[in-house]
Amino acid sequence: MKFIHLSDLHLGKSVNEFSLMKDQEYILQEILGVIEKESADAVLIAGDIYDRAVPSEEAVRLFDEFLTTLSEMGKKVFIISGNHDSDERLNYGSRLFLAKDIFISGKYKGELTRVDTRDAYGVLHVWLMPYIKASHVAHYYPKEDTSTYDAAIRTVIEKCEINREERNIILVHQFVAGSNGTPELSGSENAVLNIGTIDKISADSFADFDYVALGHIHSAQCVGRETIRYAGSPLKYSLNQREILSEKSVPVITMEEKGKVEVKLFPLKPMREVRRIKGELKNLIENAVDTDDYIYATLTNEAFQFDAMARLREVYPNIMKMDYDNTTTRAIQESDADFGTEEKSFRELVEAFYQLLNGRLPNEKEWELIEAEAKEVGIIE
Ligand SMILES: [Mn+2]
């Protein structure tokens, strides 16, 4: 059987107030193209279908369209919830969808759903692990160790009766790490990842599975072995430097007899690229290319440029962010690094910043103004 692995669609997402609806619509079409070209039998979607627990109408419509097309193409679809999805809403209609070979697991109820499929090589089990918190597991198994996510997920898997002679695939939306270190983040995963702390799960827990379709981390990568893999989000959802330079792709998994699994990556080309440009304002404007792209511009001018964002926007209508990289910003960054901001008082922080910008401390009159402003916006009382 041939599977397409997707995750972290985050339908309805905006980046820096730009709705990516059109880009998402486009990329789903591209993915349908890969599915058709590869004659895949099934699609695995490892969580974070939507960006929010209450998705927009547009986002729901887009996913409805995607599912309907997959169903019309005769594909099986396996879906789990991610931490961004509402488990109950994702479960809506799931029993009716079974008749169309669409299998959704939105909520953990003490055991994992197992779907058995068949091909020329025999039976193949697809296990669905919706997004689970350790506390959910504790609720069903109060006597088991659920003190960490690792222990909790181990418990969940121990409760599955896995036939190791047969082929098994599992969909998981968690923070899974191999012995070779923690996975690299793309910067758009939000505050859900407490790196290195309680929610890290060892890849060893999945030793009995022939393929582990992971979701949660938006950078495509494998964890421990080729067949434990984050598909990554289909689009770049952050302006993080590494994410901007990364390439999005879709893993296509071919499973033959037990022990024979092949993974191929198909690069995904977005409708609009996310690009970082850097230079003097004048140069960026005069030498503009691919102006429809999402742009993160960094100005190297030493002097403040009046109305720079508006001037850039005239050329790059989809500019998302602008900042400066010059002597001043670098000095601020350096002093930030040894600031120890948490231990400093408001006054100390402002003084240091003021000193850096103006080469002197603020006088009494200026202090009055700064304090009045800070009170107004609620920084100090
Ligand atoms: Mn996600």
What would the keywords be for this entry?
binds manganese (II) ion; alpha/beta; 6-stranded mixed beta sheet; 381 residues; Purple Acid Phosphatase, chain A, domain 2; 19 strands; single chain; globular; 12 helices
CATH architecture of the largest domain: 4-Layer Sandwich
Bound molecules: manganese (II) ion
Biggest sheet strand line-up: 6-5-4-1-15-16
Tell me the radius of gyration. Answer: 25 Å
Mean pLDDT: 91
The CATH topology of the largest domain, please? Purple Acid Phosphatase, chain A, domain 2
Oligomeric state of the chains present here = single chain
CATH classification, class level of the largest domain: Alpha Beta
Query: What is the 3D form?
Result: globular
Give the number of helices: 12
Q: TL;DR of this structure?
A:
With 381 residues, the chain is an alpha/beta fold. The chain contains twelve helices and 19 strands.
Written account of the structure:
- This protein is an alpha/beta fold.
- It folds into two domains: 2-267, Purple Acid Phosphatase, chain A, domain 2, CATH 3.60.21; 274-376, no CATH class.
- It is 30% helix and 25% strand.
- The chain has helices spanning 21-38, 57-72, 87-91, 94-97, 134-140, 149-158, 241-245, 281-286, 308-315, 327-337, 346-358, 364-376; strands spanning 2-6, 14-15, 18-19, 42-46, 76-80, 102-105, 113-119, 122-129, 167-173, 175-177, 200-202, 211-215, 221-223, 225-230, 249-255, 261-267, 274-279, 294-299, 319-324.
- Strands 6-5-4-1-15-16 form a six-stranded mixed sheet. Strands 7-8-9-12-14-13 form a six-stranded mixed sheet, with no helix packed on it. The protein has a three-stranded parallel sheet with strand order 17-18-19.
- A hairpin with a 2-residue loop joins strand 2 (14-15) and strand 3 (18-19).
